Amino acid sequence: MNLDQALLIFIAESRELLEDMESSLLSLEAADEKTELINSIFRAAHTIKGSSGLFSLDHVVAFTHVVENVLDRVRSGTLTIGDDLIATLLLCCDHIKSLIDGVEKGQTEADAASTEAGAPLLLQLHAVLGASASAKGALVAEPEIDATQRIAGKGSGSDYWHISLQFSPEVLRLGMDPLSFLRYLNTMGHIVDILTLPDKLPDAASMEPEACYLAFELEFDSSADKASIERAFEFVRDDCTLRIVPPNSRVEEYIRLIKDSPDIAERIGELLVRSGALTRQELAAALDIQADSVPGRQIGAILVEQQAVPSEVVDAALQKQKQVKEVQAQESRSIRVDADKLDHLINLVGELIIAGASVNMIAHRAKVIELEEATSKLSSLVEEVRDSALQLRMVKIGATFSRFQRVVHDVSRDLGKDIALIIDGEETELDKTVVEKIGDPLMHLVRNSMDHGIENAELRQARGKPAQGVVKLNAYHDSGAIVITVQDDGGGLKRDRILAKAVERGLVEAGQHLSDSEVYGLIFEPGFSTAEQITNLSGRGVGLDVVKRNIAALRGTVGLTSQEGVGTTVTVRLPLTLAIIDGFLVEVGKRVFAIPLDMIEECVAFTAEPGHDYTNLRGQILPFIRLRELFSIQAAPPVKGENIVVLKYAGQKAGLVVDTLLGEFQTVIKPLGPVFSHVACLSGSTILGSGDVALILDVPQLIRRATGGQPSGLSSVALKSETRIS
Known about the structure:
By secondary structure, this protein is an alpha+beta fold.
């Protein structure tokens, strides 16, 4: 076994378990039924502790063991979990994560820093355990219930084993003394109560002196397990009827052991035996009954009927069996793949697409029908390979969204506000690279909504709002892009205050007329802040400009709408993938450009009055941009007329005037180098089948430019840079 590889798997799985643990802790407060969440939290801690022991990570085992003890008290009901304990356990998750991070760096023993970091948490956990133990002692000191009631209830209401024992009439003739077995029980514990049942005792005339007619009902206090108690009657097992009912605490322990058992396929009887709820002899007897019964009779029903196992324990075993089957079915459908291998596969697919385009061009020039048919089939297969490869990189955004449950929990406590997070669209998928890079910008937006947007409870109630504020995260697909919204029901942005601050900083001139979107867009300027005081979260003017810059680096856009007193919504639009897209090629002069196909509405013949930068499209005004003028391409328009490519993005439309429509093309996106990164209206480049480079147009920028969002024309630097690219 490769221990290094096994350790990497342990680290990855521990992080997943910690994420699940954190998510369950954050869900506890709002959950009506907390039992399963508490069980899942305990299982996560238990699994991490057990796996750490396999690698001799004693410092992880030691800390996690204390956490596990606290969670065990919560599960047993002797400890109530509240906000303070949840906050402590969340900090424990963070500490365990830091220990796991240290293991990844080669730290297999505790150092001074980790010991110092964990010490305050251990003090809190031991304080909780101490309080729990005191409470438990108070409960034990309560008066005992009447022994007769306890026996009549067959162990219910007590924490003693209940043993029903009926000897056969022949036991004395076999040389066995029934009382000797009862005396032996006292060596394993203490018989608290005993009731002798003379129901089968005949009248004196019919009584045989060598026959045994007595039965016994016992309340037995012992720490022994069920199998050990049964072994006390080993020599008389075939000559008596024995039923052992576990104490209430043992039933809970059996259920816990069943739920915490390894996820391996096994029969329900074996699962019950391994948990201690059932002995081998009891199982064998039940299997004999099943063999003689009608086909299809379940072993669980027989065990309950024979009173060998409580029904709730059988139900837990059936549920565990079902869970194992579901887990194994899921594991059989999935496999872990290293991210670098996926990236390498995508690069190879990109090269395959470029090579395929070259083959298609050669086949078209050769005008050989068989070759054209073969290359057409090849192109279709390459397209399917491309889609499948890209699908491998697609991940659900829910994992990123769930991280913010913890952020909202911690920040709301720091701010002294009551804030809830609502998540929608967590099933929405996008490229893993985009998911990895969008986390930090979203973090800024969520924290900003909580600090600036949501008011305190007193002010919200004074405004007629619920005391609890709400931040909503949503994701959905739209026109080949993914849209993520961060919405709050806070006080909204103060337009006049933003404008005054912008005038003060010289960003706009006094008296200049700006639309609401332009005013709200000012908050994304570097160093811009309207906060009256600096806090741990905001006030320094750092954050939103970084958000905009990071989103722009992903070829995305960010917009903002707000209504004072109602709330604010930030909308982020991102491409689904950063690797390969379906493109549409157009030509102006001898220059070829690629446009993302998902953002094209239609193509129409060019019609417009001379000097106008708009046209009439079926009764609607369509602004357009001439690529020839935008990039200063020195070539005359074609004699047969130009074309307009109608673009759509974020609910807006604009036209792009081009010479020739070349058709669809699988576009492998190649990033522009640092020298050209500032060139406007370009988002990348691609390689054509001929080996020439085609520039990929940035549709959002073009639409903003066409609709008046930016001044027309490019800077001289941009023009020179574009000329070098061409």
